[in-house]
Amino acid sequence: MQGYAGRILHVDLATGKTHVEPLNEAYAKKYVGGIGLGMRLWLDHSKAGVDPFSPDNPLVLTTGPISGTVWPTGGNGHAFVAKSPQSYGVGEAKSHGSFGTELKRAGYDAVIFKGKAEKPVYVWIDDDSIQLLDASDLMGKSPAETEDAIREELGDYYIRVAAIGLAGEKLVRIACIINDKTRAAGRTGLGAVMGSKNLKAIAVRGTYDVTVAKPDEFMEFVKEFHERMKGPATQKYRTLGTPENVLVHNSLSCMPTRNYNNSRFEGAEKVSGEALNERYVAKIIGCSSCAMRCEHICVVSEGPYKGSISRMEYEPLWAMGPYCGIDRLDAIIKGMELSNYYGMDSISVGVIVGFAMDCYEKGILTEKDTDGIDAKFGNHEALVKLIEKTGKREGIGDILAEGVKIAGEKIGNGAEKLGQHIKGVEVTGYDLRCLKTAALGFAVSFRGADHNRHGAYAFDVKGKVNRLVAEKGRGKMVKDMEDVYAMIDSLIVCKFSRGTYYKELEDMAKLYSLVTGFTITPEDIKRAGERINNVAKLFNIREGLRRKDDTLPYKVMHQPITDEGSAKGAYVSQAELDLLLDDYYAARGWTKEGVPTTEKLKELGMDDLIPIAEAKLE
Amino acid sequence: MVKIHERKFVSADPDKCVGCQVCEYICSWEKEKSFNPLKSRIRVVRLNPLVNLSISCRLCEDPPCVAACPRDALTQSEETGMIMVDEDKCNGCGWCIEACDYGAITLHPEKKVVFVCDLCKDKGEPQCVKWCPEEALDLVTADVLAQKARIAATKKLFQEALKTAATS
């Protein structure tokens, strides 16, 4: 079993005790690594109905079998899994950079953090030596400041750190875990879970060798992928980057604008990928082992936000820009920088501010509620102030820090309908009213509203289907994409590199075989992807999520698009959603309630998890 | 003595280097058959997202590492300028590591002797240069580096004139 480190580290934060157990080979083969292995380990080490902020909600950190190798984009990944304080179901988020490769060299496929430390601590993983160190001096610091302080304290400047900011400490439900200063395990609020454990940071130094089973063939394959990465499959990421989507989505009327009041933005040109690259991108850098490079580092060199520096992608740009009606890139870069500073999921940050602005414009929130902030759509100063307040849980920020679902319920008076989320997780930059394959993908996504669980928007945006129609057949399309995406996040390779796997499953099977020495067929890969989606579903079922939770944001179902153009009038009706869900559950071999059947679980070799499903089948 | 025009070493272009560490992985693989930056002869520094550079031995004239070694374990090849380590003499004391201004010499985590870039002489060319996805690494002489710097400086100075020339 090469590729894997073969070890799982357990850290009890309450007692400070740690122990190592070998990685079960059957688990490795079945759940691969990354989010797959993480979700399975979480189920094994938790009890049904656990509160996300309870010490009994374990936080699982994983690497993948590829982590630590030179595999382009695959050498550097890691993932976190826990019960989400947003969805109360699966919480998982993946990140890249240099942290995962270091953890692998320290010799771990997974680290399971249990309990809650009495006082703030950080965990120092120095190969086999594990220490809980005092973090009281680090409290309130940003993840980047924390990284610098830990390196200084331990006197080693190549230590890699994953940390939470003030938002995580204060249990802001959209808090993320940031590694290598600018890279985030962003979605589903896992930074708040970390904060609830009094765990400020994880510092790692790994000195062990990483090897692969078939070195010569592996290096040949690496060489081939280096070539592929120079080609058209990655061109978008290497040039304009994902902000290229701004003008594309705008032209298709599928860019939610002003909290879903519009589907296109009149200021799109000003916040386009083209404008961003022309005026703000200072350098494009890369993660450890990457042969592509995508990280567009933006610098603001003049004006009120002079000195702001941040990486920028489409999603945060969209969320803090069009979604808030803001057409200033400098303010968006500042907003992104602040999100990183406090340690918050920048997508959710923008969606929350957009929600607050909508409440304000409709008179549900007044200037009195916002502590004097004129939270109109388009007010960039309001964006910056609201982000700060949310990060600190100060004034109105204390409510916004709950995320749009809970905040909407707390504010009431119609605000419930203005919070656009699925399973409590804020929407992302695709107008689901006119992207009906994506709508299904988002509705069934096991971690709530997200484009990264399925990529089903591609069928709609690229015109491979009629995006305005809900019809049978979309279920299987979404399922197949989900299975591949689950594998991408479990092997842990970068989604931006997905196009370089020309033969998709075949290439992945070859990679996995060369690294581990297992004999893996493309069919095995497909099965593993399916299995991981089933384990995720069982996670959600055990925690009480049902078919009714596989739904869409209020406005997607009740407020048709008003902007002129081909998508005018589009929305998703309950009948359409039902048709799509039925089709999808059937494609998955699940019941009408969306519960995996005993036969399906047996077929996938998941017999030991049948009791979770059986309890709900009656 | 070796002529200055012949002494080539691996140098990273700071404008092109993105800090991806591919060179580290390739070096440790080439030399040690493992993926482990601690065993790489070239190391990457990232001070912040904008400041990235990989660094390896510069083949100094009058190398301080050689002078610092109390056991005469380090010598410089007259022919190529490369630093050669006599592993029998080296006891891992680290004087050479301290003497090197570039951090280009490191202590092997297992063998406990120092190692330094040898330009992959048995392969005929440095593998990091061959693999660098950004083409940021180059095998150059100090003279060529100076030539490049001069050209870059001149281009900058005549920026406006060159623009006019390109459009006319």
Folded structure, characterized:
The complex is a heterodimer of chains A (about 625) and B (about 170). With about 625 residues, chain A is of the alpha+beta class. Chain A folds into three domains: about 200 residues, 4-Layer Sandwich (Aldehyde Ferredoxin Oxidoreductase,  A, domain 1), CATH 3.60.9; about 160 residues, Orthogonal Bundle (Aldehyde Ferredoxin Oxidoreductase Protein, subunit A, domain 2); about 190 residues, Aldehyde Ferredoxin Oxidoreductase Protein, subunit A, domain 3 (Orthogonal Bundle). In chain A, strands 2-1-6-3-4-5 form a six-stranded mixed beta sheet. In chain A, strands 8-7-12-9-10-11 form a six-stranded mixed beta sheet. A three-stranded antiparallel beta sheet of chain A has the order 13-14-15. In chain A, strand 1 and strand 2 form a beta hairpin. The longest helix of chain A has 21 residues. Chain B has about 170 residues and is α+β, with helices and mostly antiparallel strands. Chain B has a domain of about 55 residues: Alpha-Beta Plaits. Helix content of chain B is about 30%, strand content about 20%. Chain B has six helices and eight strands; from the N terminus they run βαββαββαββαβαα. Chain B has a two-stranded antiparallel ribbon with strand order 1-8. A two-stranded antiparallel ribbon of chain B has the order 2-3. Chain B is globular and about 65 Å long. The model of chain B has no long low-confidence stretch (mean pLDDT about 90). Chains A and B meet through helix 7, strand 13 and strand 14 of A and helix 1 of B.
